Amino acid sequence: MHNRIRLLALLLGIACSPLTAQVELTVHVDQPQFEISPTMYGIFFEDINFAADGGIYAELVKNRSFEFDRPLMGWQREDRAGGAGATLVENEQAIRPDNPRYLTVTVDATDGAYVLRNEGFRGMGIKAEETYDFSVLARNATGDLNLAIALTDTSGQVIGRSEVPLDAAGADYSAVTASLTADRTDARARLELIFTGRGTVELDMISLFPRHTWKDRPGGLRKDLVSLLDSLEPGFVRFPGGCIVEGRDLANRYQWKKTVGDVEDRKLIVNRWNTEFNYPRNAPDYYQSYGLGFYEYFLLSEDLGAEPLPILNCGMACQFNTGEVVAMDELDPYIQDALDLIEFANGDATTRWGKLRAEMGHPEPFGMEYLGVGNEQWGPEYVERYQAFTDVLRAEHPEITLVTTVGPFPDGDRFDYLWGELNKLDPQVVDEHYYRPPEWFLANAGRYDDYDRNGPAIFAGEYAAHGPSDDRPESRNNWLSALTEAAFMTGLERNGDVVRLTSYAPLMAHLDAWQWRPDLIWFDNLDVGPTPNYHVQRLFSNNAGTHGIPALANGAPLTGQDSLYASAVLDTIAGTVIVKMVNAGGQPAPLSVRLPGKTATTKANLTVLRSNGIMDYNTVGTPSIRPKTEQINPVGQGTKLTLPPQSVTVLTVTLE
After folding, report:
1. How does pLDDT run across 378-406, given as a tens digit for each residue?
2. Catalytic residue among 276, 307, 376, 462
3. CATH class of the region 75-210
4. Residue 219 contacts by C-beta under 8 Å, 6 or more apart in sequence?
5. Most distant CA pair in the chain: distance in Å?
6. Is 399 a catalytic residue?
7. CATH number corresponding to 2-34+548-655
8. pLDDT higher than 70, residue 126
9. Alpha-carbon dihedral sign for residues 468, 470, 476, 482
10. Which segment of the chain is annotated as a signal peptide (predicted)?
11. Where are the domains of the chain?
């Protein structure tokens, strides 16, 4: 570890003497080279690290329909103060195959009470003065049974309570609802169902949501997390993954048709990250309820003004796990899933799947334009299956742009093989992934300078610098990783005629339930933690511009000379030129930005993102590393700057 940090110190120029010669960066505003794709900067969502259930999906009850492998996982039962009761998990597989289990509760509590308690996802984040909406499907209530709900804090004290009417629970399931308001904040609260009296009742889909979700949709998404995504101004949302798409085996793969329709009819499965890693990072209580399903993903994309980019299984399970593949003569159902998804997203309400979308509340098509075939597959098995997909999809839906993969690594035999084979099939968009040390990102800022300008578009679909860290989960998202990613991103932007889509990965991680790091956003049950990497992504995505323009020092792009990196764009709508500069070195860097042929007005902003320590990082609730913006006065056609050591600087100049 110490040798690696010393190597990074040399790469970052920490040991170098101060730069005395001023670098002159000439930005050719009058030479637009290409249009910046509106999908240049997007987000990649995968249900890893409790990003969906327990994260962005605002449901607070874990195992709400008793469909976990252990049906009462997350629930505790208590005879209280002389009351007594019992529960029985029953199964109606023949009647409700996708949600067969329910709970029969028998109560004898004319004195005291019988209590069912749910622990939530590492507790429930409850905020003072917030209203929470409870619902349960109930039927066959007998006797004089009464039900109340309560939220309790970590000491067991009640912080909110409400009565729940059971008189509507007849022979068929009825939605029984109540609401309560908390009088205190607690990050690890519990929900109690308190039964008194005597009788029985059958329960399913026990649920608790905050009243104020994203756009205040009942049963919706966690507002603070979606707000962070909205602030990124993403051009696309890639979903649902990731390795989630593949599954550990084909039975565990993501099947979009099981995630749409009524929430209570969606078939829960074990999350493939459940036991992927050894203790203490395994999560045996990690399941996918699909409350966040494909309809909700499309709706989120629409809310964010982003293109939906779904990825579908191509008949291959994760090759790092089982490597299971479906036989070629049994691949048709997988291809049909793709055709049906296009109909669900884009078909009118007279079609089978378009009708379902309309019934769910969205009569108008979502206007999907992209579709990914497979995630990180490799080898001839993938090429064969990808070709089978493209033969059908290009014939029936030429309007859809297909995304293919060249595997999990940015180089090597698998990568080279796939590029060679896929090029024969004339791919439209090729997805490349880079999980590499920080020094790789510095060394590869010019990766796409020599890519074929007549070849397929590149999707930098998953990338993150994996560097040194300490014991705190957020520590791998240190300033070193963010700084080196920014240097790499100047190369992505400079080659925006080839690189048309980019996204950091993974997107989110629960502080108490993570499996993988680094991650763009850390959160706990109450708060969020945008990382330095998040702020880098936001600086680029919020300043994407409309056209790429040359930014040259001594006639060449800055790709690490004197530890400097740069890219520039023109925004013809705002009438601005935006220059992004990274000083990866350990000393201040004097730099002059020239705009030949253009005169700057007195309007210019300078935004700087940096930290005093290369290993510094943000913690949840304490975002100490964040950008700072000031107004400056550009001088005619040039602006003199001093880039702080180990910094990311964005200069925005308004032009006459």
Report:
1. 999 999 999 999 999 999 999 999 999 99
2. 376
3. mainly beta
4. 58, 59, 207, 209, 213, 263, 291
5. 88
6. no
7. 2.60.40.1180
8. yes
9. negative
10. 1-21
11. 2-34+548-655, 75-210
